[in-house]
Amino acid sequence: MTTEELIALSERCLMQTYKRFPVVLTRGLGVHVWDNDGKSYLDLVAGIAVCALGHSHPSVVETIKRQAETLTHVSNFFHIEPQILLARFLVENSPFDKVFFCNSGAEANEAAIKLARKYASENMGGKYELIAMQESFHGRTLATVTATGQERFHAGFAPLLEGFRHVPYNDLAALESAIADKTCGVLVEPIQGESGVVIPAPGYLQGIRRICDERGLLMIVDEVQTGIGRTGTLFACEQEDVAPDMITIAKALGNGFPIGALLATDRIAAAFVPGCHGSTFGGNPLATAVGLTVLETILAEGVLENCRRVGDYFLKRLGELKEKHPRIREVRGRGLILAVELTEPGAELVLECMKRGLLINCTNGNVLRFVPPLILTRADVDKAVEILDAALEER
Ligand SMILES: *Cc1c(COP(=O)(O)O)cnc(C)c1O
Hints:
By secondary structure, the protein is an alpha/beta fold. The chain is built from 14 helices and 15 strands. Pyridoxal-5'-phosphate binds near residues 194 and 225.
């Protein structure tokens, strides 16, 4: 079908929950994707921080084929070898003891909220309230959208859930004074991705840990976007030297195969007993086999080192761009989650880059967000910066 035909069909048959670009992507390899008309793009979106190993990574393709031929799905009523092995990998490479598998970031956060409530109902005298951050993003289910501290995601969905309050991000005093009788925990992103790659002051996460320890609260960290190597370590919390009570991961864990997970310490995880939470697809053999391959490949192929090195280089190059273009207000980033904040809306610039063969994302109106595959090279960065530079000249 032609691109026009596909787009017309898309508008006829799909619920219009996304404002889509007039492009049909049909193929990907490494850091590149191709559209229906054969045009190639350098992909710095990577399915929104998902394809960490790039598109069609041979190890991931091989695992999908092998596992699909062996066993795709069985119920969690049975033990599943790839699920067990992926859980072992996660607990051996984190401060956590137990894993619950699901299919997305929202589901992982939903599980974390439920586990916090379950634990609190049994161990904290019936507390249930979570403090989350303004401008946060935690997903689109009713509980996670309630946790999300942005009105624009709430509109039309009232009544939202009880038991959430929001305080400004990167503000420990505000957090401390919001703690109330019913507060059982704190939910926070190490870097706010969706709202524009907002990086808190050093020590912020440690401060939350200290407050949670002093006040007997659970610390839940949403690493759905920052986890699985994005910031240069497997988890962003590592760099802050912080051990939360729970973290959630998803996006890059399956490199595009849907999978999410909640990780918790034994003390907290013990509140989840048979029958109280579950998922038909969560942790199925195919998804978890892919997850294990993704993690093993990230470690075996030096992807974390590459992410740090190329991320530093990218940030330096963006800094140079800022010197040249007064419309750039600020550049920031850690590892390969980076942003260029503009003094004006960025949508036009995204289209201009697309015309020139570069896919980037604009979030929060005026922030260009870069969450490319972690296998990005310096040459790819040079190419991207060249296109950005030209697009900024043009517009
Ligand atoms: C993307 C994202 C989510 C939601 O993940 P889905 O897989 O879209 O449900 C939750 N939290 C953060 C921090 C995210 O970036």
